[in-house]
Amino acid sequence: MTFTKAVTSAFRNALKFEGRSRRPEYWWFFLFVFAGAFVIGVIEHLALGGGQWLTRLFQLVVFLPFLAVAWRRLQDTGRPGWWVLVPSAIVVVSALVAGSVSRQMLMGRLADTPEAAAAPGALILVLGLLQVVAGAVIIWWMSRPSQRGPNAYGPEPRVR
What is the model's pTM? Predict the structure, then answer.
């Protein structure tokens, strides 16, 4: 699959979470998203002096197509697509914990002993490490070959 076909396919199937996507479709679209955000960000910085609103708009436009192609890519390897959400879920939990700790610090409610005061920080550290590990596992799975033949998510996509 070529770069152009991969990008076209990802946008055409932006709302399709069933079925399978091969490695080239995922990785070419990944390159498109990464390079697009980088180039738009550089242009925005040089021409507009920052702001990042064009970059955010681009990321909003490619969010669903990227999620869908990642979902289908995991299914192509024989894994449930929802696994792609795990690193994001850890980020949300980390943000909630960090916000709670910050609020307690501002209100002076953290425990008086150093050991008890360090516990929330340790939890945030563990959640951060979990996010890195989960992200690495997802990248590993995305790089694995397609599962040969039909699997629980559909027939093997044709090689074009």
Answer: 0.81
